[in-house]
Structures are given as C-alpha cells and as structure tokens.
C-alpha cells in the first residue's frame, strides 16, 4: 500500500472516531479497559493495528473482542487475539499503547512508523474477526473496530454478540481448520457434541444428578447456554438465572467475580440447599461453582477446585490408557489456595508451577507440559494438549488393549470438549459436569477432596501503584523498601499464614491477599498487611481498619 493511502487513516479518525480525551490509556493484562465513552478512538485504532498484525502474520486472521469482562456496565474494553487464538504477543502491548495515545494529527505518521517498525507488508490481504459482549456500548465500538480495519484495507468480519472464548475459538479455527469450524454453530457442534458423546459412554450414576443451576451474570454466557439448553436431551438439566432480562444488571451483585471476591451468593438466583450452581462472568471466560447449605452458608468451589478436579480425572484416564509417560502439569498463580497446591503436589503427585497473574502467563507455562492444566483461583482456566499427547492418545484409541482404548477414546472426547485457546466458562462447565458424572459424586463429595484455607482479599488505594514491584511470581515485593520485611513479620505471627501484595493490572489499586487457619485470622492478617501497604507505599484516603 503506498504511504499516500494512509490519509484514509486520518480522515476516518477525524470524521468518525476523533480522539476526544487526553487521558492516558494502557494496554494491560486484558487489553484496554475503561469507561466506554473514552474508548471509541482507541477501538478504531486497534482496528488499524489488527490489520497490521494480520499482515505481519502473513494474512492470518486476528481477533478483536469488545468487552470489559466482569466490570460493571458503564465500562468497556478491547483486546486483540493472535492467530492461534492466544492473547496478543506481549511485545505488541507497548505498540498498542503508543497507537492508542497519539493525537489525531500524529496518527497517520505513527501508523506509518509502526508499519515500518514491525516490517508489515501492506500489500498482503488482512482479515480481522470482531466479537462483542452484551453491553449497550458494544455495537458502537464494534463499528469503530470495523472502520479501523477498513481504513487499512483489511477485511472485517463481525460475529455480533459472542463470548470471549467463542471469538478466540473462531480465530483459531479460521487459521487452522483441523481445529474446527470458525462459527458459533461450529463451536456448539464441537464442544456440546463431545459432551453428548461422552454422556453416551458414561451414563449418570452414583450421587451425581443432572440438575445444574447457572448464574449468567446478566451477560453473554447465560444467553449462549440458553441456546445450548435447547439441544440438550436430558444430558444436563440447566436452570438458568441472570440472563439479562427483568432489570438484571450486568455483573451487578452477581457473576463469578462477585461470588469469588465477596464470598457471597449472587442476587437473582433461587437457592435450594446443596444444589450446585455455576456462576459465569460477563463475557463467559470465567466460571466458579458454589452451593448454599441448609444454614444459608455459601460454599465456594473456585478455579483451584476445578483445576484439581481436572487434574485428578485426567491422571486417572492417562493411567487407564497406559499413557503415563505423558507429562501432566498444573499451573497456578499466587492466588491459588495453599491447600489446593498441597493437595495437587502431595496427593495427586502432579507437578505445579506458579506464575504471574494474567492468562497469557498461565497459558504460556502450561504449554511446557505434554498436557497442561492452568487455572486462576478466580475461575479462568483450561487445558492444553501438545501434539505429542494428541497423537499418543489417538494411537492408543485405535491400537490399545480394550480398556486402554476405552480410556483413550474418552480422553479424545475430553480434548474436543476443551477450548484450548483460552479459559472458557461454557467448555469448563461441560468438563466439570463430565467429571462429576464420571466419578458419580455430588457437590459435597467434590468439596471433601481437601479443605480450603480461609482467605481474604482487600484493595488499598495509593498515590502510585507502580511503586510496588514484585518478584517470584508476585509472591514477594521488592519495593517500596521495607514493605516485604514488614509483611514477613506480620505473617510470621499467624498459623498457616501467607500473604502477598501486587499492583492490579486492571484497576488503580494495590491488591492484598491473605490466608490463615481461620477466617478471623485471614481477615485480620489481610487488614494488617493492607495497613502496612498504606503506611509504606503512600496510601491515599483513610487508613484501612482492623476488623473488630
Ligand atoms: C484480567 C486477566 C485475569 C486476571 C485479572 C487480574 C486476562 C484475560 N484476564 O482480567 O486473568 O486474573 O486481570 O486483575 O488475562 P487484577 O490485575 O486487577 O488483579
Ligand atoms: Mg471475563
């Protein structure tokens, strides 16, 4: 493309998506995320960047998802998806940030600079898949994304309202047709089809029952389950709540993040004692389970629980298939409950690694195993299978002894049911339901595998959260001076105490995590550490109170 045609970039910007705010915005752990009314020019510019990225990748398709996940309705966001359905390569985050923040007058020249810097051949075709969540600001932003793509002569394809993982899946399929068909229907066929296949091989038995309640967070995940529900023939009896009607507000007092962080059941769900409930987040890439007991206590089964359930089942299947030479490993973050890590290492004897918060870090680390399971405690996770593992399992499914063949065939269905590109609430839901059914257990039995250490999360507002730097997968902080020593002193006075602090990647706060032997101690430990952060890292506002 001759440089003169970059004029269109400026013309579109000025006429349709002008930069109206000087607020600096940064491509963070999950793309750009802020108030929706500050985003239109950013999304337009990401449309430009997606085209450049597609050309750098030889015309392979790039994804753009318009969503602010579990944030409340007034926020929105955008993130780019790489050709294999993974998060945008990290080195491009800085490029994205630069392009998002230049003035309209400098947009054309900055675009030219970036094209040169990344060595994009602008004569190639470029393809960009665009998806959005249910926010009322999303259609407008999706249109801005399309315009960005068109301005650089790429081809946009809008998928309308889809979950984030569906978009990742479609991008992957478009670039690798062995993975599936790049449409919403293709997604259902593969994932739900695999679930139905398994159910035929593993009939319902034991304490498992097929009734599942779902909290849809008034977002896109519940809506899609409502479509899936119609195609299930009694394999799973879904009762769906918080589907976005009846005045229910997106993520407000409901959804996976609310349930996990507040440790309270969501509004809008009918609660029957001991009935298992799956709670999704607003864009359908996170899931936690919970139930309410007969005394109205909520018992949470979070991402760590799902990870351990997956690890124990995959281990069993690998044993039955006599494929134990395949290396299975699990990846967690510092937020993983200490009890889960102990259970995985000591009981399941599966190796665990701990990485920094953020899906890209977990995903990357999981790829180093033949079969890698990764989960954040907040419910984001999936399983990735190497080509070596897929081949070996496939061979056993054909040539193994009858029992081995059976296990390998189940594993193949299990692989099909997994969205390997990114954590996916819908895919994870089917994985969990399959395992509970295979083991013939109910939610109380699932809980009995280990006992979570009580924990508490708090946030502290400080002048500059980047004054906090961390090391050792965020488990220790290296600045400000003296803070880690102070945390160590505080923690040493608590039985089974553990605590760490880190700057949030999505909010202007410092996060505090604490766990200890009792809830009271965990609450107090968290508060003491929050006060240390406030004192040593430039706290703003009121000093955090100790619990009374
Ligand atoms: C983003 C991340 C999520 C992480 C969360 C932490 C992705 C797709 N999402 O939502 O994995 O748990 O940020 O938020 O990477 P925080 O930095 O504000 O604690
Ligand atoms: Mg999400």
From TrEMBL:
Cofactor binding, per record: Binds 1 Mg(2+) ion per subunit.
Chain sites annotated for binding substrate: 376-378, 502-506, 511
Active site: 69
GO molecular function, one term: metal ion binding
Domain Alpha-D-phosphohexomutase alpha/beta/alpha, first and last residues per copy: 61-101, 109-172
Catalytically driven reaction(s): N-acetyl-alpha-D-glucosamine 1-phosphate = N-acetyl-D-glucosamine 6-phosphate
Record-level GO BP terms: carbohydrate metabolic process; cell wall organization; UDP-N-acetylglucosamine biosynthetic process
Enzyme class at the top of the EC tree: isomerase
Binding annotation for Mg(2+): 69, 281, 283, 285
Cofactor: Mg(2+)
Keywords (A to Z) from UniProt: Carbohydrate metabolism, Cell wall biogenesis/degradation, Isomerase, Magnesium, Metal-binding, Phosphoprotein
Record-linked Gene3D superfamilies: Alpha-D-Glucose-1,6-Bisphosphate, subunit A, domain 3 (3.40.120.10), Alpha-D-phosphohexomutase, C-terminal domain (3.30.310.50)
Span of domain Alpha-D-phosphohexomutase C-terminal: 487-531
SUPFAM superfamilies cross-referenced by the UniProt entry: Phosphoglucomutase, C-terminal domain, Phosphoglucomutase, first 3 domains
EC identifiers of the protein: 5.4.2.3
Superkingdom: Eukaryota
Pathway(s) of this molecule: Nucleotide-sugar biosynthesis; UDP-N-acetyl-alpha-D-glucosamine biosynthesis; N-acetyl-alpha-D-glucosamine 1-phosphate from alpha-D-glucosamine 6-phosphate (route I): step 2/2
Family, per entry: Belongs to the phosphohexose mutase family.
Its job: Catalyzes the conversion of GlcNAc-6-P into GlcNAc-1-P during the synthesis of uridine diphosphate/UDP-GlcNAc, a sugar nucleotide critical to multiple glycosylation pathways including protein N- and O-glycosylation. Catalyzes the conversion of GlcNAc-6-P into GlcNAc-1-P during the synthesis of uridine diphosphate/UDP-GlcNAc, which is a biosynthetic precursor of chitin and also supplies the amino sugars for N-linked oligosaccharides of glycoproteins.
Protein name: Phosphoacetylglucosamine mutase
């Amino acid at each position: 493309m001759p440089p003169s045609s970059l004029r269109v970039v400026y013309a579109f910007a000025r006429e349709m998506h002008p930069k109206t705010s000087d607020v600096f915005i940064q491509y963070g752990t999950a793309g750009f995320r802020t108030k929706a009314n500050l985003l239109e020019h950013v999304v337009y510019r990401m449309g430009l960047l997606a085209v450049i990225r597609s050309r750098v990748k030889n015309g392979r398709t790039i994804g753009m998802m318009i969503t602010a996940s579990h944030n409340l309705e007034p926020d929105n966001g955008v993130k780019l998806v790489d050709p294999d359905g993974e998060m945008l390569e990290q080195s491009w985050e800085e490029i994205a940030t630069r392009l998002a923040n230049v003035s309209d007058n400098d947009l054309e020249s900055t675009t030219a600079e970036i094209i040169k810097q990344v060595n994009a051949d602008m004569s190639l075709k470029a393809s960009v898949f665009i998806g959005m969540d249910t926010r009322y600001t999303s259609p407008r932003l999706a249109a801005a994304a399309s315009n960005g793509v068109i301005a650089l002569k790429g081809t946009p394809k809008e998928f309308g309202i889809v979950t984030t993982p569906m978009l990742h899946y479609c991008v992957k399929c478009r670039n690798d047709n062995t993975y599936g068909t790049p449409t919403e229907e293709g997604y259902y066929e593969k994932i739900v089809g695999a679930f139905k296949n398994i159910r035929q091989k593993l009939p319902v038995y034991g304490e498992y029952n097929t009734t599942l309640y779902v909290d849809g967070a008034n977002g896109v995940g519940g809506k899609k389950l409502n479509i899936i529900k119609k195609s299930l023939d009694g394999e799973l009896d879904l009762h769906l709540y918080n589907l976005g009607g009846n005045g229910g507000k997106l993520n407000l007092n409901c959804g996976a993040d609310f349930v996990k962080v507040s440790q309270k059941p969501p509004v809008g769900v009918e609660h029957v004692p001991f009935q298992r409930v799956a709670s999704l987040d607003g864009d359908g890439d996170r899931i936690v389970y919970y139930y309410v007991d007969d005394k109205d206590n909520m018992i949470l089964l979070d991402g760590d629980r799902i990870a351990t359930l997956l690890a124990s089942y995959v281990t069993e299947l690998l044993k039955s298939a006599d494929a134990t030479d395949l290396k299975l490993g699990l990846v967690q973050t510092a937020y993983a409950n200490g009890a889960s890590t102990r259970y995985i290492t000591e009981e399941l004897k599966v190796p665990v690694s701990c990485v920094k918060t953020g899906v890209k870090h977990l995903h990357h680390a999981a790829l180093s195993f033949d079969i890698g399971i990764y989960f954040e405690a907040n419910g984001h996770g999936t399983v990735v299978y190497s080509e070596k593992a897929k081949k070996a399992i496939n061979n056993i499914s054909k040539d193994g002894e009858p029992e081995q063949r059976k296990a390998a065939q189940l594993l193949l269905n299990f692989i099909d049911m997994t969205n390997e590109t990114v954590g996916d609430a819908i895919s994870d839901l089917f994985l969990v339901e399959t395992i509970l059914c295979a083991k013939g257990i109910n939610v109380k039995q699932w809980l009995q595998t280990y006992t979570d250490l009580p924990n508490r999360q708090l946030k502290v507002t400080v002048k500059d959260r980047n004054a906090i730097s961390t090391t050792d997968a965020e488990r220790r902080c290296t600045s400000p001076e003296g803070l880690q020593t102070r945390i160590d002193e505080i923690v040493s006075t608590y039985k089974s105490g553990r605590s760490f602090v880190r700057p949030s990647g999505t909010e202007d706060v410092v996060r505090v995590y604490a766990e200890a032997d009792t809830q009271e101690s965990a609450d107090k430990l968290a508060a003491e550490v929050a006060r240390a952060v406030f004192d040593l890292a430039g706290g703003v506002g009121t000093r955090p109170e100790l619990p009374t």
